[in-house]
User: What shape does this take?
Amino acid sequence: MRSTSNPAFRNLPVGGGGYAGFNSAPVGFPGAAPGYAGAPPIVGRPMTIDDVVTKTGITLAILIATGAATYFTPGIWGLALPAALIGFVLALVIVFKKVVSPPLILVYAAVEGVFLGGISGVIGTAVGNPGIVFQAIAGTALVFGGMLVVYKTGAVKVTPRFTKWLIGAMIGVVGLMLINLIAGFFVDGGLGLRDGGPLAILFSLVCIGIAAFSFLLDFDAADEAIRAGAPEKTAWYIAFGLTVTLVWLYLEILRLLSYFQGGD
Assistant: This one.
């Protein structure tokens, strides 16, 4: 069994391997490999790729709607910080909650939309170029689509070694972010990872790369859940996990673009 860098998928049931299916038949159901001796089918309709697409689409639609409403209402940009804190708490509840809660995931998406809309407005105004917000959105969509193609074609195989390397890299960058934050209380700019300089640009590029490759692990986790015959409701966990990665990727791209505009 492979693990994933996305904590949202910690409770997903997983089955056999594979790396480029993302639409494979669940074990114990028509289309499963002949003679497979896996677990018996779970009672209820098993999750399908259509469920993943639908639930992810609904979640992102809510995020985009609240994000757009916030972005085009400058007077409420100040809600970005409290929304970020609320979103963080909701994410922890969703991750550690034993039973999937679609309403909670949708509330998380709405709150994250407020956060992204507010922070996007603040950054776009601060650098004097609101256009970077739409550039960041386009960049995020292109990276997501590109990594989906990479996964579907098997250009990069999701192996246990790849998974361990990526998780290690993610732990490393998160650790550096925390150290930089703490150092900022004592030295102006901290370690220089977020001050817009050459090191900050390099760090953002590394973060964007890690976030992009994290999609491969997210897709693989979804694929394995489908293979394992996970219940249909599990698709909400997949939607939540993909949303978390998309939010991180968008923020890193927006930050990188702001550096080239002279922003912090």
